[in-house]
Batch of 2 targets.
Target 1
Amino acid sequence: MDARAYRLKCLKESDVFEVDFAEVLQMKTTIIQAATESTNYRQHAMTTAKSLHRVAADITDHDWLQKLEKSGFIPEKNTVWVLEGVLYYLSHSNAMEVLKIIADNCTIAHTVLLADFMNKSSTTLSSSLFHFYSDWPDHLLPSLGFSDVKLSQIGDPDAHFGLLHDPLNLFNKLRSLPRSLQTHPDDGTPCCRLYLVKASGSPN
Ligand SMILES: C[S@@+](CC[C@H](N)C(=O)[O-])C[C@H]1O[C@@H](n2cnc3c(N)ncnc32)[C@H](O)[C@@H]1O
């Protein structure tokens, strides 16, 4: 349900590809269509991106990249991959496979990955929903072929958005604890972290 292609002016030179399940994309198309027919919302239903392609695919299937390419995605073009709110729903092997496929793209074109990673403790919030985790995405991603990994936690200066002023805020408290800790030293509750990660890679 991401709306970047409709709200980010910086995408005016970019081709945007949205990959999701067919039924999710269908629902989105219906909502956007309703907005274009409404005088109140019409201007918000105009894309700001150069082009927008909706690609119905399950990223746990082996052919999602081919589907993307059939929709016009060109692996040789510089690409920013946004995996936001996705990886932790996948099994470990599926998530690793997706990351490897994207890492392989680094050998073809300048590639940037933006992704959020749950740490192990976060997956205990729902063992039926959350599967994949990494406590050290800043170590994992270079092992797959990415470089320049930058990791932020909610509340860091670049992930603050002027909203987290209270030093006792849950996220600010977490940031002051070593990342290796799985439980709070005070009360033994899990240290649930969400890492916001940027990584990149380029052909040599
Ligand atoms: C929490 S949402 C976040 C989406 C997006 N970042 C946004 O802001 O709207 C997770 C999305 O991932 C999609 N998704 C989950 N598993 C998937 C899979 N195996 N293949 C393709 N899409 C998947 C879901 O349908 C959902 O739209």
Target 2
Amino acid sequence: MLRICVLASGSGGNCTYVASPKTAVLVDAGLSARDTMRRMDLAGIVPAGLRGILITHEHTDHTAGVSVLSRRHGIALYANSGTIDGIERNPRMRTLQWNRFMTGAPFLIDDLTIEPFSVPHDCYDPVGFVIHTNGTRVGVVTDMGMTTTLIRERLRQCHALVIESNHDERLLMESDRPWTLKQRIRGSQGHLSNQHAAELISDVAGPELSHVFLAHLSEECNIPEIAIECTRQSLDAKGMTHVAVHCTRQDRPSNVWQQATSATSVPVGDL
Ligand SMILES: [Zn+2]
Ligand SMILES: [Zn+2]
């Protein structure tokens, strides 16, 4: 059984809580420590079981809270060497204690198995994670410029997915953003559009998939209803009408989702 709650998602800070009955981790810590704790409280999550923070990549919207969460709250930090190098370019971040993992090599945190895998994004060594325990799998991938065969392979047979659905192509191109920024976002190391997210999700979805959380939505170049509709249509076209699609928010936590049996799930708390 795994519980999952996206505490925050977007360019202002990303943080996702994943927990078995025994062990909890955060994927990324892009909120301040105070805000992270406040949102866990709001979601009814007790932080005492937190055993680690898994960092996908060094961008500030994924790392802003690591220093205080590690020092003041004693939570262990996990990242690969490239990401640690990237974080340590900031002199104030050089004294943190890290647990290094190798991209592609699964590791354990108590009863959670963590599988980090490469994703294309404009930083040192970005990864996504699959976290599993006792047959329940959750995939978390944000900040990817395009999908790859490896990403699709890793995300198959998951019960829940947190996937970037960053922008609507038309809204991005019609926005006031500079051309170079538009090209960076659309590029192969930028961010995933609604259309590409929908294709990825419907490609990897299987009978066991219950919940999809669309993540890292651009506030300027996306609209939650458009993002949901895009993935909904793509899933329905493949007969995957059983999958619930949710949008995550920058300003508040998602529902807490919990795997109840091998084929069903229940939301606990509606935030
Ligand atoms: Zn990001
Ligand atoms: Zn990023």
